[in-house]
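To close the section, here is one more complete example, presented without commentary so you can practise reading it yourself. The ligand is nicotinamide-adenine-dinucleotide.
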Amino acid sequence: MAPLDYSKEGNSMNIAMIGTGYVGLMTGACLADIGHRVICVDINANKIRSLRNGLINIYEPGLEPLVKRNKQAGRLTFTTDLTAAVQQATVVFIAVETPRDEDGSADICHVMDAVMNISAAITDYTVIINKSTVPVGTVARIRSAVSDSTTKPFSVVSNPEFLKQGDAIKDFMQPDRIVVGVDDDRAADYMRELYAPITTAQWPSGRPLRQKSWGTNPLLLEMDCASAELCKYAANAMLATRISFMNEIAHVCDCVGADVDQVRRAMGADRRIGPEFLRPGLGYGGSCFSKDVAALMSFSAAKGYHLRILRAVERVNDRQKKFLFRQIFNHFEGTLHGRTIAIWGLAFKPNTDDVREAPSIALIERLLTAGACVRVYDPQAAGNAESVLGPRDGVTYSATAFSALSGADALALVTEWDEFRTPDVTRMQDAMKTPVIFDGRNLYDAQRMRNQGMVYYSIGRQ
Ligand code: NAD
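Output:
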């Protein structure tokens, strides 16, 4: 993607990004690309050393050249020295992890640690922007913690992140919306200025990306902090609900002899519903949906409201993650000992190397427990899968999709990477011991596969 011409709009700001993980690095690099000067901070010294040496430890399309060009331009730097970074900045983002605690609630200790360090370091007016996904009320807690520990002027803003892994640069540069929870005018002005290159920029073609109208910018949704904090959870919970709903409909299709592809096409054509997130699959994974659904239920329950719908969404998802294993188990009539199952795809979705909560990991664990061996292939995520699974007998990491098929009793397709879309079926059959596919993403045309001699299973299209 060509860089925006930021010179026309907005004033360049000095920014400190606290937390240089997935969100911090992406956001920091994108903010640098629209002209701001960004210092990315992390407590992980190895990560910072690697980034300084040009090594990026996450896979995201376009991220490497983005980081490189902004480093070279001197707009993007990396440090472990939070105090120095905050002292140079007017705007300080918090983008640290908020993992799921044992009881399902969001653990905000990393956020509060960062807040204490920030408040000790500020020397002048500072806008502290929280980007981590946090329970409602956290921004108020941050505000009170900072005012308890400094007399310097500051504002606290909620600015939840909506980027999708695999499409993150586009999501930042051409967002559906930017949510800003803000309680004072001074901070609101900073936020408008910060994002002005995106909300009002012209693309090089001269076509306005988004234009200002009605005096305020329709892309920048300003609201109170509690609403801003909640809308991130509500959006993820809605998407998780759609996924679980469609997985339920797919099972109904199997029961009644309908085809879920036809059903979802008709549903998606309804403008009130829309076509996105209507594909059945192996359940949602990734670092966010599961933990955010659990956290939303947890902090709502703490206030006396129990989200029964989300309890059902979770249960459906847990069951769906076991679905492919059940199909495989039933096909082999309960005897998996000594079988070899090839697995295409380990990442929780295409175009990322992230395997957090990935259905592949749950499937591999079950297959190994049942006595099978697996030969796995993923274009990007094998290294991360190996770290999660640890050294294991029975797991072979293959260099190519076809080498994973060698001698396999069946193929399980788990992640819909583009390179799996048009396979050479004859070559597959030559490599496999028996020509059986369990398609967990409904990627292939069922009839065509069967006509070519494959035993083919999918979801909701029997
Ligand atoms: P991450 O685990 O990839 O990165 C967090 C980073 O923060 C780590 O590098 C960690 O070392 C660093 N860190 C922790 N405490 C620190 C401190 N006190 N000072 C400096 N650095 C510190 O997490 P992530 O995926 O980037 O997620 C960050 C937040 O954004 C979470 O709340 C998450 O829910 C939310 N979010 C994530 C995504 C996504 O797709 N990953 C999307 C939207 C929102």
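Once you have examined the tokens, check your reading against these statements. The pocket of nicotinamide-adenine-dinucleotide is lined by residues 18-24, 41-44, 47, 82, 95-98, 110, 113-114, 132-133, 161, 163, 165, 287-288 (CB under 6 Å). Confidence is low (pLDDT under 50) at residues 1-9, 202-215.
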